[in-house]
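Model it.
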Amino acid sequence: MVRLWAAGCLIAVAALAADAAPPSSVTFNRDILPILQAKCQMCHRPGQVAPMLFLTYPDTRPWAKAIKAAVETRKMPPWSADPAYGHFLNDRSLSQYQIGTLVAWADSGALEGDAIDAAPPKQWPAGGWEVQPDIVIDSPDFDVPTSGVIDWMWVPIEGAMFTKDTWITSIQFQPLDYAVVHHIGIAFVPHTTDIKYGEPIWERVQRDANLITIPGQKQSGANSVVKDAVGGGFQDTYVPGHTISDYRPYDAARFIPANTDVYLNLHYTPNGKPIRTHVRVGFTVAKEPPKRQVVMVAVGGPTDRDHFRIPANDPDYAAPPGEAIFSRDVQIFSLMPHMHVRGKSMTFTLTYPDGRSEMVLNVPRYDFNWQLQYDTSIKVPKGTKLRVEAHYDNSPGNRYNPDHNHDVFYGEQTWEEMESGYVFVLVADPNFDPRHPDLVEKNTHLQATR
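Modeled.
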């Protein structure tokens, strides 16, 4: 009893300390640098998406007031999950104590403090990577024009064939120019003798005068190359705000059979100036087979115009939900919502075989520029149903909305829309074949919820 009481007191004291008032005298070296190293430098360092560096006092001091404004409004660090639902292992949000410390530093003159108080610089891998890769592949250069529409393309990467069975323990995407990359998809495709490395295989789309996809006119030969080979599309993806999928903490990996080629799905978006760019992808490799395999599942609603139509000026359109029933025991270790600029909110809800329901992720303020993965740990028995529900804001109140006066349909470009809930799962069955996954039964033709 005494030990339990003491442990409870320690927990209570730690909780109080986390929300305690910041110190009366705040300096960069003693108080601010540890917060930046833990929560900010992943983006605010060379080669990353942030436009300024937060590595040293001279780097950071000019931004003191901007930091205060960003953390008080919880705009930074980016984190959109509602804390009332789910538990996330990679939560980058700041505690109230950390927010108070950053605000007090800005308000008290943003002092540097004594150098002896500063923690050693955090060591990051060379080349802008989050994890030092064992293998790096590079896409061909591509000239992004000033304007216009660029369709999706699949590019088989020369020199990127896996010649022996390989276990990939992390995949990191590194765009050279973040501003023009809408996404990077990756697929691992059995090698064929007719492959032409480095040559784009286009997914051409017919569009009307308003650049809207004409139903039934897409030439889908490119997607067929991948789907016919591996039974699906992307096997991992980069979207704005996400760079690395790291399976190492879970003693897990993605199995790549011998004689497999890497295909990248590249989607560039012009941003007003011509630019020649490319992307890199880094992998870490396991020395021996892991205990669990990684598979990505996409759960979304219907894509046809009869069921997916976001009305003009609608501030809260509820899309038909997507559902999937797991056909084997798995462990969900990460969740990621994906919509475009009219995306407003998304929820992931599990209903277990015993009838119990649990919302495991609620993103009430979706941000296309920060499409994060939310890492978790949920054991899911066979027969569990996953329901993904999404809402959209096609009104003038959405400052990212390019045109609120027209209905919006499913499509691949940013001004069109998507509804995808990406679910990353672990499978412990040693006989599981990831090339032919039988993880879920899908029902994507549900009626709208209102």
